[in-house]
Amino acid sequence: MKRLIAFALSIALIFGLSAFGTSAADEKPFYLVLGDSIAYGSGISNSREACYGKIVADTNGYEYANHAIPGHTTTNLINRLQEEGVIADVKKADIISISIGGNNFLLGNLFGLMFDSIVLDKHDAFDRIADGFYKDFCKIVDTINSYNKDAVILMQTLYNPQSGYLREPYQQGADRLNAAINRYNSEHPGEIVIIDVGSALGDDMNNYADDEIHPSAKGNEIIAELIIDKLYEIELGTGTTPVISAQGKDINISSAFTAPLKIMGVIFNALSVIYTFVLSM
């Protein structure tokens, strides 16, 4: 893989120059996190100290920066990659973690998507969003490569934090986004390393915050472990035992926050029963 080879050569060069001084040999790999509220750590109240990016950095002794912003879509990330501070960190990054895409669905007329999926069993809109995600993701990786073609890019799959009637429409979105990520990986071998967060978090609700959107403290630790294991596997990490400098504190959200969406799921399910009955007449 081109980035791994380049990184290994850079490490060899650092050690080769150690005879001339120790400053280069002491330089830490730079780990950069980009993306949305998942990458930001919105499921925990002390995200700066305990999000998965911080755990990964502390475990491996990396220099670390997190430029993720809650609510960001792929379009937002493309624009973010034009900001001077972000560009500077991309240029010096050795490893870049990305979590992006979930808001493409969540902010793309969620109720309409739910109605189409639950009531009508139609998913054309899901397909259009996934197609747009794929085009944007290609541009994101191309932009990163234009600044720094040697950085290892870790791309996370999307998980499904819902249960009950909402789980199916969320899964429709997650499946399509993950298929797009896998498509990119197959069409551009060696350009990204996939971190399968979706499979690791699964349907265990303890892995998700009270808002039923973001990873909990436990979920952040699981994501961190996935990344740490992968970095160790590709010889960019120092070990596989996570270093947790600060225990994550789960956010405390009232059930009233999630109730409206759950009620809508029940209503849509009832409509689907009626709709199926009418079609059968």
Q: Gyration radius, to the nearest Å? A: 20 Å
Could you name the CATH topology? Rossmann fold
The H-and-E topology, N to C, reads as HEHHHEHHEHHHEHEHHH
Major sheet characteristics: 5 strands, parallel
Question: Proportion of β residues?
Answer: 5-15%
Q: Would you mind describing this structure in some detail?
A:
This protein is of the alpha/beta class and 281 residues long. The protein has a single domain, classed as SGNH hydrolase (Rossmann fold), CATH 3.40.50. Helix content is 56%, strand content 8%. It has 13 helices and 5 strands. It has helices spanning 2-16, 37-40, 47-50, 52-60, 74-80, 84-92, 102-106, 110-120, 124-147, 167-187, 197-201, 217-233, 255-280, and strands at 30-35, 63-66, 95-99, 152-156, 193-195. It has a 5-stranded parallel β-sheet, with helices on both faces. Helix 10 links the parallel strand 4 (152-156) and strand 5. Helix 4 packs across helix 12, helix 5 (74-80) runs parallel beside helix 9 and helix 8 packs across helix 10 (167-187). It is globular. Mean pLDDT is 89; it is low at 11-25.
